Amino acid sequence: MKNFTTKDLIVCALMAAVMCVCSMFTIPTGIISVTLSVFGVMLSAVILGWKRGVIATAVFILLGAVGLPVFSGMRGGFGMLIGPTGGFIWSYIPMAAITGLASDRAEGKFRLLTVIAACFISATLCDALGAVQYMFVMNVGIGAAFAACFAPFILLDCAKGLVAAALGTKIRKILRL
Fold first, then answer.
1. Could you report how far apart the first and last alpha carbons of the chain are, in Å?
2. What is the DSSP letter of 60?
3. Distance in angstroms (rounded) separating the CA atoms of residues 133 and 40
4. Residue 63 main-chain phi, psi, to 5 deg
5. pTM above 0.90, yes or no
6. 123 lies in which domain range?
7. What is the DSSP string of 121-141?
8. How far is CA 115 from the centre of its chain?
9. DSSP E strands: which ranges in 23-84?
10. Any bridge partners for residue 35, and if so which?
11. Which of 74, 76, 117, 160 counts the highest number of beta carbons within 10 A?
């Protein structure tokens, strides 16, 4: 990344740490848990924008992939990425890109609404990609995957996006990122 400064490195590391902390807040509901990981990814992207948001998210995923217990339920390891819930984790990269791009480009009085819409799109993508990987790993049909991975989580994930957009927009303005 051209002109990547020490400040960029620090804010990416801090937001990766925020994502790690967010994922610790988990409510076990079976194979797929309710977690604040999605909130952490969206918050990071809103604050950092798409490039730094994607980097921070990739750092978070890599930390988990090498075995640090940063994923939901304090779990880690490459097996999490290829397991039934791995689709949710993989979706964090496009989530950060979509949400961060909206945060970078939105202006004027509709800025917050644009970022909220991007968070809703990102939440939908996360749950959809989570359902796709779940479907293949668990060898179930699309209806069962939708019922297990999408329907129970989409409204809550959109609510997380609403909070991430509002809070992140204010923090980004304060930090002048």
1. 16
2. H
3. 21
4. -60, -45
5. yes
6. 6-175
7. HHHHHHHHHHHHHHHHHHT--
8. 14
9. 26-27, 34-35
10. 26
11. 160
For residue 75, list its beta bridge partners: 71
Structural tokens at position 135: 């479907």
Residue 1 in any domain: the answer is no
Dist. CA 141–CA 134, nearest whole Å: 10
Nearest Cα to 36, choosing from 60, 13, 59?
A: 60
Query: What is the tally of structural domains in the chain?
Result: 1
Helix and strand element counts for the chain (H, E): 8, 2
Residue 173 one-letter amino acid: K
Q: Has residue 59 been placed in a domain? A: yes
Residue 151 lies in a domain: yes
Query: Could you tell me which of 9, 16, 5 has the C-alpha nearest to residue 56?
Result: 16
Q: Tell me the two tokens of residue 96.
A: 């950060």
State residue 66 phi and psi, 5-degree precision.
Answer: -85, 0
Could you read off the pLDDT of 27-86 as tens digits, one per residue?
988 888 899 999 999 999 999 999 999 999 999 999 999 999 999 989 999 999 999 999
Smallest Cα–Cα separation from 46: which of 176, 171, 174, 175?
Answer: 171
